[in-house]
Design a protein that fits this description.
Strand content: 15-25%
Largest sheet: 4 strands, mixed
Length: 216
């Protein structure tokens, strides 16, 4: 299932990201009221083109990890804290022709961009109602728990605590009055960049599989 966002929330995002280097729009996708809600950073180039979250190289890595604990794309919900691809603009010289070429590589979304999508994400979370939130990487983790949270310290752990919601005036975040269950994970791209992390990531996913069984 591809989620349909309220038009007023989409309009709000559009206004708040005016002037930012963002492209496309990839909606969240998957099962409502799932065991797991996987929360990434932002779409990449592949996601921008195909409109399917985590469908590029990182997505293939994520699907492999999900499969090890008996889940797949259809049995979880997948989204990101920013729904458009953040890019930077770089001018490079083509080695063959010597011509100047403009490239638009992916980049990490800014805090302003994450906040611009905050109300949309909060609404999405309320619709999905997952048993466990799985933030993938620091950007997603800090959106939920604050800037002091660090994936290197919290990966693979079961946390039961309030998460951040956008303030009504849009100026920042405040903590929810109820607890949520979270198991932070390294972003699957981290494994692609550093294969030495793979044993740790596999171990974390096996731990998550055991946690889900207990929670259910």
């Amino acid at each position: 299932m591809i989620i349909q966002y309220p038009q007023e929330l989409l309009d709000e995002v559009h206004q708040r990201v005016a002037g930012c280097n963002l492209a496309g729009f990839t909606p969240g996708q998957g099962k409502l009221k799932p065991d797991l809600m996987l929360v990434g950073e932002a779409p990449g180039r592949h996601e921008e083109v195909h409109n399917i979250p985590f469908s590029g190289a990182s997505g293939k890595e994520l699907m492999k990890m999900l499969a090890t604990i008996g889940y797949n794309r259809e049995s979880v919900y997948i989204t990101s804290v920013v729904r458009q691809r953040p890019y930077s603009i770089k001018k490079v010289t083509d080695k063959k022709t010597g011509a100047q070429v403009v490239k638009k590589p992916n980049r990490t979304p800014t805090r302003k961009e994450v906040l611009a999508f905050a109300n949309l994400f909060d609404w999405e979370f309320e619709q999905v109602q997952p048993k466990i939130i799985v933030p993938l990487g620091n950007t997603a983790l800090q959106r939920l728990l604050g800037s002091q949270a660090n994936i290197g310290q919290l990966h693979g752990q079961l946390l039961k605590q309030p998460i951040q919601h956008a303030k009504e005036d849009g100026s920042g975040y405040e903590l929810s009055t109820t607890n949520s269950l979270l198991v932070p994970m390294y972003h699957p791209a981290a494994v692609l960049y550093s294969r030495k992390l793979e044993p740790t990531v596999r171990e974390d996913w096996q731990r998550l599989g055991k946690i889900v069984k207990k929670v259910k």
